[in-house]
Amino acid sequence: MAQSNKNAQKRESRAERRAAEAAAVKARAEQAEKERKQQTMIGAIVVAVLVILVAIGAFTVYHNTHKTSDAQDDLTVEQAYDKLQEVKDTPSLVDKKGGLLISKNGYGKAVEGAPTISIYMDFLCPGCGNLHRQLDEDLQKMIDAGQINLDLHFMAFMDRWSTDEYSSRAANAAMYLAEHDSDPSHLISFLEKMYAEDFQPEEGSNYKSVSDAQIKKQMIAAGVSKDVADKAFNREYQDWLDAIDTYTPKRSELWNVSGNYKGSMTTPTVTINGKFWDMNQLSTAKTTLAEGLLESIGLKADQVGVAGDMPSIGSKKGPISVTTGE
Question: What is the extent of the structural domain holding 37?
Answer without folding.
Answer: 2-65
